[in-house]
């Protein structure tokens, strides 16, 4: 009976580590996609230090989980006590790091409010000055999501115009409607847009557009994170049970 129980734990351990292996592969693939994606996100990520760091953290985390799942599978099948102990300590560190990151994200969630982004936009945005990282990032966001400002075009009333851009009186060029939502896309009517004709402008604020676009994915990511934490917890329990059961 004891041998059957040990065998059951061994294969359950293998199963949980296989899921960790798959989760790591997904994170690794997602991190690579965010960095190399050619549809506008790459430019946004590269221009924002926080997003740039986050993308590489995702890559590193995916690589660690990928390797960890592989080692856990090997340790379970071969019943190697040293490998199982290393696996337990390693996954415990990752578990605590993920839990800490979730707690910090909850604590600092107020920095992602509409008011915060509006204040930063009015303070730092320089319209078509693409040599400025902040402005270039916002222009890429507005072009990619076909939106304007945080709340709408009214956000730019307090934003100064560039000396060489006398035509740009109402909204920045990035708020003008395009046939294709990319920097290479042709304007529907650029002159009319910059002159203040609303039907040639993107009137909806980016905060609402992005929130609606990613709302489903945020809940999916949260559910996935909870699932990963649960799998890691069960993997640690099975690792210790298997470690104690190996003679």
TrEMBL record:
Topological category with respect to the lipid bilayer: Multi-pass membrane protein
GO cellular component, one term: plasma membrane
Gene3D superfamilies, sorted: Tetraspanin
Subcellular location: Membrane
Entry's transmembrane regions: 12-36, 56-77, 84-108, 217-243
Chief subcellular location: membrane
Pfam families xrefs: Tetraspanin
The family this protein is said to belong to: Belongs to the tetraspanin (TM4SF) family.
Listed name of the protein: Tetraspanin
Species for this entry: Origma solitaria
């Amino acid at each position: 009976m004891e041998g059957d129980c040990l065998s059951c734990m061994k294969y359950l351990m293998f199963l949980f580590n296989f899921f960790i292996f798959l989760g790591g592969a997904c994170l690794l693939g997602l991190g690579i996609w965010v960095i190399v994606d050619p549809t506008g996100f790459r430019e946004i990520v590269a221009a924002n230090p926080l997003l740039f760091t986050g993308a590489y953290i995702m890559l590193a985390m995916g690589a660690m989980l990928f390797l960890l799942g592989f080692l856990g599978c090997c340790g379970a099948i071969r019943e190697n006590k040293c490998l199982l102990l290393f696996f337990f300590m390693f996954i415990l560190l990752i578990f605590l790091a993920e839990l800490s990151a979730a707690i910090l994200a909850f604590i600092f969630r107020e920095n992602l409010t509409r008011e915060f982004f509006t204040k930063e936009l009015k303070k730092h945005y320089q319209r078509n000055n693409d040599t400025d990282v902040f402005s270039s990032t916002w222009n890429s966001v507005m072009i990619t999501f076909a939106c304007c400002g945080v709340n709408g075009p009214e956000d730019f009333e307090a934003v100064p115009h560039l000396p060489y851009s006398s035509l740009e009186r109402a909204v920045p060029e990035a708020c003008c409607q395009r046939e294709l939502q990319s920097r290479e896309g042709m304007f529907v009517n650029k002159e009319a847009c910059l002159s203040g004709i609303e039907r040639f402008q993107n009137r909806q604020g980016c905060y609402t557009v992005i929130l609606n676009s990613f709302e489903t994915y945020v809940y999916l990511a949260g559910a996935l994170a909870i699932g990963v934490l649960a799998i890691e917890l069960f993997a640690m329990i099975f690792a210790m049970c298997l470690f104690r059961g190996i003679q």
